[in-house]
Fold Adenine deaminase.
Amino acid sequence: MTYAVPSTVSRIPADCLPALLRAMPKAELHMHIEGSLEPELIFALAQRNGVQLPYADVEALRAAYAFTDLQSFLDIYYAGASVLLQEQDFYDMAMAYLQRAAADHVVRAEIFFDPQTHTERGVAMETVIHGLARACKDAQAQWGISAGLILSFLRHLSEEAAFDTLHAALPYREHFIGIGLDSSEVGNPPEKFARVFEQCKALGFHLVAHAGEEGPPAYVWSALNVLQVQRIDHGVQSEKDWDLMQRLADTRMPLTVCPLSNQKLCVFPDLRDHNLPRMLAAGLNVTVNSDDPAYFGGYVNENYLQVFAATGMGAEQAYQLARNSLEATFASPEQQALWVQQLDACFESMAA
Ligand SMILES: [Zn+2]
C-alpha cells in the first residue's frame, strides 16, 4: 500500500454503503466500447444502415446473451458490432457509454476499441477513430468526464495483422493514448505479439494486455516480462501462482478486474466466490470495471454494488478500489491528485 486509508472509512454507516459506491468518484479502465452497444442501439443502427441481423427483435437478441465461456460471448459480440458503419455510429455508441459512465460518477474512462473488428468489414480506420475521438471531446465538454482511447489488437488474429493495424492507425495517433490486447485468450499467449508491442513501446504508447482471465498465470508473467505492460486486464488467475502474486503486490501492478463479466463467462459462476476481496487483502492493486456492460448485465456501479453485496466488502475496500482506479489511470499525477481530493471529500460527506 502506498497510501493511508483515511479514518472516515470507519465512520460510514453500513446502510450508506450502496449510496457511497454510486457517488464516489472512480475511473473505469477496462471497458470495450463495442461491448457497450445495447440491443436497442444495435437495432436502431441496423435500421439506419440497412443491415440485416440474425435476430428477430431486441428481445430475441437479449435472450441470446446466455454465455458459457469467452468464445460464446465473442461470437455474439462480433455480430452486434456489424451494425457500425458510419462515423456517426461510432460517435453515438461512445456518447451513450460516456453519458452512462458520467452518471455513475466515472471521472476518467480509458476505453478499448478494436479497429480490426471494423476494418475487416471494410470500415475505414479514420471512420472508427474520428467518431470515437469526437465523442470523447464532446463528453468532456458536456459532462466533465475525461476519456482516453486504447487501441486493442485482436489476439486470435496474427501479429502481422496487428502490425498492419498499427500502421493504419498511426496517422491518427494523437487520438489514442495506448495499446491493448484482447479477444480469445487461451491458445494466443502474449508473446505472440512481442515485436509489435516492442514497437508500440518505442513509439511512446502506454501498454496494457488482457491476461489471466481464462488463461494461465504464465500468460500474466509474459504480459509483464515480454510485453512490459503497465496494467494487466483481468489477471484473476494470478491467484494460482504465489510468486506471481508477490511480483504483482511488490510492483503495485494494476489489475483491471471485471466481476460481472467473470460471473457471466463462468470464470467465477457465483459472485460470492470472486477473489477480488482476497486479492485486495493480499496487497494487490485491483480495480473494478465493467468490461462489456451491455452484454454482462451492468455498468461500473452495478459491478461495485453486486460484488460488494455478494462478498460483504465494506467502506475501506470501497475507498481502496476507487483510489486504486484513479491512480492507475494514464492521466497526469496532478490530475490524479485532484480526483483523490474529490474522493476524500466524498467519503467525508458521507461519514457519520
Ligand atoms: Zn475485456
